[in-house]
Design brief:
This protein has 130 residues and is an all-beta fold. The chain has strands at 14-19, 25-29, 34-38, 49-53, 61-66, 72-76, 81-86, 91-96, 108-110, 113-118, 123-128. The chain contains no helices and eleven strands.
């Protein structure tokens, strides 16, 4: 059965979601510039959500992906960067993209790699994680 789960941030502009190995749902919020996580094990209320503001000036988070180590990757358009978020430490690392206006709309990967198709440049970047 499917059910609608609304992020708690008003008009957040959710763009992409990805789940981790624990079944938590990670959400890229374009309008708010947040990375949010919903934990269904905690129910449907406000306490089932956690939210982190992406670093940088006026962030816009578009795509999100969780790798095989449960590290969360997010594309941040305003600062043309990839964000690496460690849920354990709750810290972001910022990785600038090598080409202007990469505009990553979807992130994929396999163990040891994160694939970044750049819709703005028609390149594919790969980050080696292992």
């Amino acid at each position: 059965m499917s059910r609608i789960v609304e992020p708690p941030t008003q008009r957040q502009g959710a763009r992409r979601v990805w789940s981790d190995s624990r079944g938590r749902i990670w959400v890229a919020e374009w309008n708010s510039g947040n990375l949010s996580m919903h934990d269904p094990a905690l129910g449907m209320g406000a306490n089932s959500w956690r939210t982190w503001k992406a670093p940088g000036a006026d962030p816009h988070v578009y795509a999100v992906y969780v790798d095989d180590q449960d590290i969360v990757w997010a594309a941040e358009w305003s600062n043309n960067a990839m964000l690496r978020f460690d849920p354990g430490s709750e810290k972001f690392a910022v990785i600038p993209m090598p080409r202007p206006a990469a505009n990553i709309r979807q992130i994929l990967g396999r163990p040891g790699e994160v694939w970044l198709p750049e819709s703005g440049t028609e390149f594919i970047s790969v980050i080696k994680t292992g």
